């Protein structure tokens, strides 16, 4: 007789692995199915660093981020790994945007500072922005070590009863009267609950998603640049902050050297729509050129001649850039976590808790913010 699992999770990226972590702690013995090999670089969870921050463009995220900081700290203690570096986040923009960014933190009772262009130059001499620029400093922001978070979630989940199966691609999902059947290229599984956290492959695993919240896989280039002088100024452990630069026509972000020695990560938040099974091999040249121009003008310690390395990452976007989390209306035993739109990794530990609560029968209306609902009307369809 086929074993009936309590919960099967499709996708072992950061969302699936954090869901497995919480589900294992809840004694649900989750089975996690991953189409690729362990540690692959084909999705959204690879690489050593991301930015973590309270400062987000929408207040709904603030209490979730507060919980996430606490839960990452718990996982760090369990795994004995440093998962977060609170070196600060400096958001650089015009004055109006700086104050709008600060207001969300002020309303949440969180610390922040507004800096003039002169103050930015004085406190952070590696950043040369004239008096037309302003900054908003989120002192609790900084770096989240993405690869360590993924490894820690998987390791702790496994210790508490989760099973990960790599190289198993889901080919079919069937709703039966008393269980859900999951068919892979290797086996068939029966489960009481199914959680799909398949990232850019979400609509391929569950084509019906397009009738609810349309998600689109998009590819972003992550650009690395050599520090040519004053390396101490870019040392996160000496309080070099991460930065987000907001202009009228772009958003860029910078992480101090973590992924590769002596190289910052500076990227532009611009993506190309793709089929995740056929990703781009290179990004449009204008993106690197745009970054080179900004570096030459504002970051004098960085070599602006050319990016030293370019990696690729997949975002899974929704039309409104908000997440898609909840029970499938046609079969509430199937749960979805997707559409994290390039901002999900830092919140994954809380998303995993939400999905586990739903598996355990929690009321969706009090567990998932309406902003993330699968049935929010304004983003239905293509």
Task: Summarize the structure in short.
One of its GO terms (molecular function) is flavin adenine dinucleotide binding. Its cofactor is FAD. This protein has helices at 14-25, 61-79, 95-107, 117-123, 146-159, 202-205, 285-298, 348-359, 364-367, and strands spanning 4-10, 31-34, 50-52, 84-85, 89-93, 113-116, 134-138, 142-144, 163-166, 170-175, 180-184, 188-196, 215-226, 242-246, 251-260, 263-268, 272-273, 309-318, 324-328, 331-338.
What is the global morphology?
globular
Number of strands: 20
Mean pLDDT: 96
CATH architecture of the largest domain: 3-Layer(bba) Sandwich
CATH H-tier superfamily of the largest domain:
FAD/NAD(P)-binding domain
What percent of residues adopt helix (DSSP H or I)?
25-40%
Number of domains: 2
Report, as a whole number of angstroms, the end-to-end distance: 42 Å
| Biggest beta sheet attributes | 9 strands, mixed
Q: Indicate the radius of gyration in whole angstroms.
A: 21 Å
The H/E string reads: EHEEHEEHEHEEHEEEEHEEEEEHEEEHH
| CATH fold assignment of the largest domain | FAD/NAD(P)-binding domain
CATH class of the largest domain: Alpha Beta
Structural class: alpha+beta
Q: Kindly report the oligomeric state of this protein.
A: single chain
- What is the beta-strand fraction? 25-35%
Extract low-pLDDT stretches: none
* Count of helix runs: 9
